Amino acid sequence: MAGGGRGSRVGSGEDHSDAQTTVTAEVSLAVAAKASAENFPVALRVLPRRYRAHLTALYGFARLVDDLGDEPLPGMAPDATEETIISTRLALLDDLQQEVAKIYGEGQGEPQLDAIRALAATVAACGVPRKPLDDLIQANRQDQLVTRYATYEELRKYCELSANPVGEAVLYIMSAATPERIRDSDSICTALQLIEHTQDVAEDLANGRIYLPHEDMERFCVTEGELAEPRAADNVRELIKFEADRAQRLLDEGAPLIGTLHGAARIAVAGYLAGGRAALKAIADNDFDVLKSTPKPSKADTLAAMGRCYLKGR
Length: 314
Hints:
mainly alpha
């Protein structure tokens, strides 16, 4: 998306603030345009209208943060260096955080971005605290600087920024946030992030990232070169099974959360948990080979898992 338009001023040094806002607004429009193709907005249709607008606002913000962190930026020169791209992304994320601060009365003026104005309405109606929103931004800052994780503990702390805040915000939107529920939600959200990393090993490596902890790769004698192969060797599949089993345990630890919820909250959170369980089934059905293709759960498996989660309350 390099080229003309107001967004072409990125990195030019002119009207920095206006240019950054223009780029963020263009990325925000792109998020809205592709929202209909995402699973999250589709799932919203089964929930009462009063929740849909707030969950959509949260979704739009989370995707905007992610896209500023990893999608092509409008107006970025084709020959821009990696250093320039990273510094631009970090500046855009800083500006976005300033927009979020305005929601909480910690900045001058009102938010300029439509996505943040929609989020402001959700914050006002549901009491969503600022920290989960700031954490999502911080996770994407970290993505610009960290491409490998030495230990599972390091990766888990990253998930505390990149995944757990979404679950916490959802609980606030559903008027169901308590310390105990947030704790269980954190287990589920960390598991969902680990599952996504496990599914997307080949895609992440193609983008220069590895989210499998190095200590786990060493345990199963897996090299980076083996992750670039078209099919997974036996030791790679053993590593993937190890990661999937860890995620399964985390899902099971958080699953009792469902039994404490009712109505729309129970439906929404059961959907998240079911998505994780269905994805783990898809990985297992693929014999833990995530290199030949990305395992994706079927709609039938996801719906069946959701029904079980909802009825059993876990």
